[in-house]
Amino acid sequence: MIRAAATAFALMLAPAAQAQELSPDQFQARTEGHAFGTYFADGTLQGIEIFLNDRKVIWQDAVGTCQAGIWQVQNGYVCYLYEDTNPGYCLHYRAEADAIIGRADTGEEFTLRLTSKDKVTCPMDEPLLSRIEPGAALLHVAERAAP
């Protein structure tokens, strides 16, 4: 009986023990070249993000609106800037068993799950991506305090 209770307790703790903070480089290695569905804490789909080379991204929200963007590192956060979003937003990421969890500097959490690029109907051509100037992004993303 005690052994069964100890095993059950260990299994409850296992997911927490498996969570691993991701550095921005680890985040890039896991996401580049892939598409991820992004979900709110209640499980509702927020949108799908395709992570391209050179930290470029294509975001398609749940209703199909597309935006090109980039991400960069500021004060340890992965910070995103999209063509129509100012000042952008920043997240820390951790890896869990079958997902990546992003925690915004506001405290809100999002779950990223690997999905098919076929679900994204956004154009993937250079004219869309060229609307974002990587060098200009630092001027638009608000300063963030170190975690």
For this entry, give a set of tags:
disordered C terminus, alpha+beta, disordered N terminus, 22% helix, 147 residues, single chain
Helices and strands: which structural class? alpha+beta
Helix share bin: 10-25%
Mean pLDDT: 78
Summarize the helix and strand pattern as letters.
HEHEEEEEEEEHH
Gap from first CA to last CA: 43 Å
CA radius of gyration is 17 Å
Strand content: 35-45%
Strand order of the largest sheet: 2-3-4-5-6-7-8-9
Instruction: Describe the largest sheet.
Output: 8 strands, antiparallel, barrel
The backbone outline, from C-alpha atoms, is globular
Strands, total number:
9
Quaternary class = single chain
Tally of alpha and pi helices: 4
The stretches of 5 or more residues where confidence is low (pLDDT under 50) are: 1-17, 136-147
Written overview of the protein:
With 147 residues, the chain is α+β, with helices and mostly antiparallel strands. The chain contains four helices and nine strands; from the N terminus they run αβαββββββββαα. The protein has helices at residues 2-18, 24-31, 126-129, 137-140; strands spanning 20-22, 35-39, 45-51, 56-61, 66-74, 77-82, 89-96, 99-104, 109-115. The protein has an eight-stranded antiparallel β-barrel. The longest helix is centred in the N-terminal third of the chain and has 17 residues, at 2-18. It is globular and about 35 Å long. The termini are far apart.
Q: What's this entry about, in short?
A:
With 147 residues, this protein is an alpha+beta fold. The protein is built from 4 helices and 9 strands.
